[in-house]
Specification:
The complex is a heterodimer of chains A (about 300) and B (about 180). With about 300 residues, chain A is of the alpha/beta class. The model of chain A has no long low-confidence stretch (mean pLDDT about 90). Chain B is built from 2 helices and 5 strands. In chain B, a hairpin with a 4-residue loop joins strand 4 and strand 5. The chains are: A alpha/beta (about 300), B alpha+beta (about 180). Chains A and B meet through helix 1, strand 7 and helix 4 of A and helix 1, helix 2 and strand 4 of B.
Amino acid sequence: MKNKKAFQISFAWLFAIIVGAFILFLAIYGVTKIMKTGGDFVSSRTGAEIGVLLNPLETGFESGRTSVLTMPVETQIHNRCTIAGSFGKQIIKISQKNFGKWSETDVDVGFPNKYIFSDANVEGKNFLIFSKPLKFPFKVADLIYLTSSENSYCFVNAPERIESEIFDLGQENLYLENCPSDSINVCFDVFGEEVECNVYVNENMKSVEKNAEVVYYETDALMYAAIFSDFGVYECQVKRLMQRVNGLLAIYSDKNAIISMQGCSSNVDIFFLKTEIDRIRSSEDLMNIAAVADDLDRQNDLESCKLW
Amino acid sequence: MVRNNKAQMKIQQMAFMLIAVTLFFVLAGMFFLRISFSELRSSAELVEEKNALLLVSKLANSPEFSCENAFGGVKINCVDEDKIMALKTNIDKYSGFWGISGIEVRKIYPLDELTECTSSNYPDCNYIRIFSGSSAQSSGVGVSNFVALCRIEGGENLIQEKCELAKIIVYYGGGE
């Protein structure tokens, strides 16, 4: 007769094993969820704080401002943009390095009043930011240019006005001479073989070529935007900026009605600019809009009651 | 029979023990979550407060408020009163735009009773509520900054630019 007792498990043991396993599963599941929530919390808080810390970059008299954003750990800033809604949204997603792994988050932090121009993903611990107002023909917004301190930009053959602006900014990763060997070369109207260019700026065409993609700009503020950002980010932000111009045009139109009641109306016709903006499909259309905007600015300058 | 009862007793003991352990973990988890959520809330409030404080100092220079060149050259911290009255009528588009719960502009001299500006009484008023969380009045905590408030004033044969001292107030924490 065989002894079966060796394989026998009492009910108490069986019960303890099943319930114990269940408790352990719940505990592990709970801890994982809490860690994910904690990660999301840190990412969303960091994203929101970055957005808030960009408020002082709003310019007044000055042409540009620079500042440094230092993160406690290695961080990836994912720059996203949407044109949904009246003014679209600047979306920031943050991933931070924990135990050698990048945290993943689904949390998006959105800012309708910010325009950040950068690569779609910027990585580093220190981020260098400068801002510049965009006038089109009135002030539309302050454009924010975000780069990682790990990336250096070398401006080759830059026009004098750009050289003096970069010199005045004093941003540590923007070089005019003695550029580090691994820097990103931004070439102005240079198409020779002597310099290996990563970004081509054609001042005549008002275009910037980067990663075999061409975008168009008007004003220096948008030229920097095209240099520092990816194709997708740039095109989306340009559309958002035009949405803002549209919003401001409505305000200036109503302002004209208000000052008319004071006996001081303006003959600036903003209708044409609105029509051009409504037609925008890509940055290539900026040239037409800029021509109308310049006309409008000239008209406004001649008025005794200026709208802007 | 006695052995059977003893075994049943042990099973009951184990079951109660397991229930107690589970309850302990659940309670500990709830306690932890409560602390986490209160931290989350205070953190969100802190970010909101920071946003309002930083925003109020720069809001006057933003395109929807600033005087630009309309009053003889570029002026810093100058709010175009005619423009913000126009903004007030277009405010629906700007819902959630600044991430705050309200914006007001109050003239601080002369110290008259507050009269809210509407399209019918403008410019004979001293308080412009651009938007607020509730319809009656601005809610939440307010932070303010001094600005120059300029507008075009038409007389019988004279049109002049009039600038007055005002306070721009940004409200946060009142829900937008």
